[in-house]
């Protein structure tokens, strides 16, 4: 059974791999044998994740890039290709959020969030999937969405819209890339305390979240590892593409 989840010989590119959730999933991929490129705007944070992976016996390297810049992504792809020769797994986990009320949102803030959460994923897939196809590499693209993508949450308008776009993009690209042997899926995490949502987790909001989460708790970052490793494995999820996998403690199953 363990062979189903063996990623030995695979290279994974973890965009946003220096974040709380991204780093946990990157660790899971590394623990199952993949060498991992940890990518973030803050390279010092990326280096810390690399150290953690290497301490656990894995292989990784830190890279700096800005997903809102096509030029930055193209340079990143060249650097990773020089390091590993190519990649088989692309984990898209960048994220930016804001609690700005709808009528107060200016287009500068809108563009900033969209540039990271949606445009950034589109550009990353354009650069990295294209190179996978050119190299004849089959593989897996894993996009990180949000529960707000299907049921919009209060106080995070732009974030919710951007993540709804991620879901649509995921399913479109699953169809687009299937003939090339590249699977595209998304993970929909529930509530995991992380950098972008801690600032809006008031006591009242936490109570509301718990009342809507059957498991009555927040998720732990390492609880995303199983879904990420499963989707990354060509053996374990070989016929899985265009899916939106919930890891949300039952949040998406609740109404009243």
TrEMBL record:
GO terms for biological process: carbohydrate metabolic process. InterPro entries: NAD(P)-bd_dom_sf, Sc_DH/Rdtase_CS, SDR_fam. GO terms for molecular function: oxidoreductase activity, acting on the CH-OH group of donors, NAD or NADP as acceptor. Keywords: Oxidoreductase. It comes from the Bacteria. Pfam families: adh_short_C2. PROSITE patterns: ADH_SHORT. PANTHER family: 3-OXOACYL-[ACYL-CARRIER-PROTEIN] REDUCTASE FABG, SHORT-CHAIN DEHYDROGENASES/REDUCTASES FAMILY MEMBER. Belongs to the short-chain dehydrogenases/reductases (SDR) family. This is SDR family oxidoreductase. It comes from Lederbergia citrea.
């Amino acid at each position: 059974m363990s062979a189903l989840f063996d990623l030995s010989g695979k290279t994974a590119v973890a965009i946003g791999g220096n974040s709380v959730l991204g780093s946990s999933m990157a660790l899971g991929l590394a623990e199952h044998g993949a060498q991992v490129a940890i990518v973030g705007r803050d390279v010092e944070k990326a280096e810390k994740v690399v150290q953690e992976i290497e301490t656990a016996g894995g292989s990784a390297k830190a890279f700096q890039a800005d997903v809102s810049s096509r030029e930055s992504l193209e340079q990143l792809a060249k650097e990773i290709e020089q390091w590993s020769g190519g990649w088989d797994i692309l984990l898209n986990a960048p994220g930016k959020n804001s609690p700005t009320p709808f009528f107060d949102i200016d287009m500068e803030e809108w563009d900033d969030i969209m540039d990271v959460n949606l445009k950034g994923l589109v550009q990353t897939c354009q650069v990295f999937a294209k190179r996978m196809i050119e190299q004849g590499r089959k593989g897996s693209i894993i996009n990180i969405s949000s529960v707000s993508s299907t049921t919009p949450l209060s106080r995070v308008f732009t974030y919710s819209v951007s993540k709804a776009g991620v879901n649509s993009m995921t399913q479109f690209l699953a169809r687009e890339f299937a003939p090339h042997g590249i699977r595209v899926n998304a993970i929909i995490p529930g509530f995991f305390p992380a950098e972008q949502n801690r600032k809006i987790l008031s006591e009242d909001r936490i109570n509301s979240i718990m009342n809507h989460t059957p498991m009555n708790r927040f998720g732990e970052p390492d609880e995303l590892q199983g879904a990420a490793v499963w989707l990354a494995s060509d053996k374990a999820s070989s016929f899985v593409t265009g899916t939106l996998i919930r890891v949300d403690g039952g949040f998406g199953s609740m109404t009243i």
